[in-house]
């Protein structure tokens, strides 16, 4: 029996070598100027020996497909928190999710020390409405401990038929014992753009996530503002707080609405030529096809000059950091709030056979002035902390950053390595504590109630409006 298994191991080893050699020749064809390292024969031999031992000695029979899939998972998850193997279901969910509708709880998550860590709850979803916070550590899904599960496995368990319930056991900084939170799964329909004239002459646009139609929906919101006002806007607040990111062309579209034509929005640096991009404020970089009508071309000219404040916090990641960084570098807007998440790496989805794919980190994002977003984020020009509910310890609610994640990618900018994030130019006094909505109620009244877009007690938003009004007075003088 053992001799048979050794033959199986040798056959498998030969197959692996064959695949690797073919991949190596492909690499030579595509990168003729780049030296290709020789195949790690000893490491591959060790891999096949482990494969053979599992097949022959493990307590229960294991299918080859499972072992190979887990090996692929391990290769990718060992690189950084964002690279992953997508099986057929996960690949389908990813494609559906970018269109703004999918099933689940509505949480952007990552992996930390074997547990699921919340990057940001998505607005108006079961997770958001139940009070899940950025930085929460999920240790149990129903009765299943998270320790030992892959991120894909954990996400699969959180998804399910709409209307069914799941119990999350959550550890939160500042809480003395784990929190038990029961959520009801739902079809997640994300309204990525919300807008309102918060005061006469002052517009407010909230982007919850960057999706296929985010740029188009934001353009409609801006056009509505100018139709509602006979006079140009006096100021605009762009709210990117707790926006976990999304599609890159959505970030370019939002930036283009406010920047001069052909201004640099973001550039990427990677090892391959495909990973090196320079995206400017031009329609070629945000429209899905050449035949699509440019939805930004009819925006009023005042959109390029209206005084702006961009609100950010620790839940602002990826595409939202691109927008904030571009507007900050071009001095087009004042960035207000707290340090952003620092997710400045690019994940490319590479389809494989059988409707599967890998999500692989291929490059880093840089702002127009050459600042790497990765593991640093965007520092606000004016630091403004968020209001907290009186009597509730919310310490650490938004303390999670990319740099806190295990195996996070380095910054990539040699001049920036090891440096602390830049200090904001101005730091406003700490906000007053907000009284709970009712007796024995710990609900934060600074957050908008269900069905509302803004709250009168939103300290950061109020400070943004005060700043815009001050700028308006100075301009008149």
TrEMBL record:
Transmembrane segments: none annotated. Gene3D superfamilies: 2-enoyl-CoA Hydratase, Chain A, domain 1, 2.30.42.10, 3.30.750.44. It is an enzyme of class 3 (hydrolase). This is Carboxyl-terminal protease. Residues 91-159 form the PDZ domain. Residues 409-422 have a biased composition (Basic and acidic residues). GO terms for molecular function: serine-type endopeptidase activity. Its EC number is 3.4.21.102. One of its GO terms (cellular component) is outer membrane-bounded periplasmic space. Residues 409-457 are annotated as: Disordered.
């Amino acid at each position: 029996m053992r001799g048979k298994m050794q033959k199986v191991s040798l056959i498998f080893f030969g197959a692996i070598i064959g695949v690797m050699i073919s991949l190596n020749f492909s690499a030579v064809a595509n990168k003729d100027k780049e030296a290709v390292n020789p195949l790690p024969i000893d490491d591959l031999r060790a891999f096949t020996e482990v494969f053979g031992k599992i097949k022959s000695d493990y307590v229960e029979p294991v299918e080859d497909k499972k072992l190979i899939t887990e090996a692929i998972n391990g290769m990718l998850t060992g690189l950084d928190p964002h690279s992953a193997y997508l099986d057929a279901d996960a690949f389908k969910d990813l494609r559906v999710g970018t269109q703004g509708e999918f099933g689940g709880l509505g949480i952007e998550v990552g992996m930390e020390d074997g547990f699921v860590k919340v990057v940001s709850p998505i607005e108006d979803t079961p997770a958001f409405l139940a009070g899940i916070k950025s930085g929460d550590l999920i240790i149990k899904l129903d009765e299943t401990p998270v320790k030992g599960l892959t991120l894909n496995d954990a996400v699969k368990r959180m998804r399910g038929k709409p209307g069914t319930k799941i119990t999350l056991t959550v550890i939160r900084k500042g809480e003395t014992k784990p929190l038990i939170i029961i959520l009801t799964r739902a079809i997640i329909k994300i309204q990525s753009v919300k807008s309102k004239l918060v005061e006469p002459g002052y517009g407010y646009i909230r982007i919850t996530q960057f999706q296929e139609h985010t740029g188009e929906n934001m353009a409609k919101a801006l056009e509505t503002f100018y139709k509602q006002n006979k006079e140009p806007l006096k100021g605009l607040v762009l709210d990117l707080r707790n926006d976990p990111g999304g599609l890159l062309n959505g970030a370019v579209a939002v930036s283009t609405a406010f920047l001069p034509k052909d201004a640099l929005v973001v550039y990427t640096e990677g090892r391959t030529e495909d990973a090196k991009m320079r995206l400017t404020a031009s329609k070629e970089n945000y429209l899905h096809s050449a035949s699509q009508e440019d939805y930004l071309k009819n925006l009023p000219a005042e959109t390029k000059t209206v005084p702006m404040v961009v609100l950010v916090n620790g839940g602002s990641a990826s595409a939202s950091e691109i927008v904030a960084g571009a507007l900050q570098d071009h001095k087009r807007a004042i960035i207000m709030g707290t340090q952003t998440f620092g997710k400045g790496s690019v994940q490319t989805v590479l389809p494989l056979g059988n409707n599967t794919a890998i999500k692989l980190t291929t490059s880093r994002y840089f702002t127009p002035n050459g600042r790497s977003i990765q593991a640093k984020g965007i520092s606000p020009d004016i630091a403004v902390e968020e209001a907290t509910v009186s009597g509730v310890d919310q310490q650490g609610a938004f303390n999670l950053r990319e740099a806190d994640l295990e195996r996070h990618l380095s910054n990539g900018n040699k001049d920036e390595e090891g440096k602390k994030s830049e200090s904001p130019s101005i730091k406003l006094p700490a906000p007053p504590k907000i009284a709970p909505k009712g007796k024995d109620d710990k609900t934060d009244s600074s957050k908008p109630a269900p069905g509302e877009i803004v709250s009168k007690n939103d300290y950061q938003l109020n400070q943004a409006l005060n700043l815009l009004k001050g700028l308006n007075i100075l301009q008149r003088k």
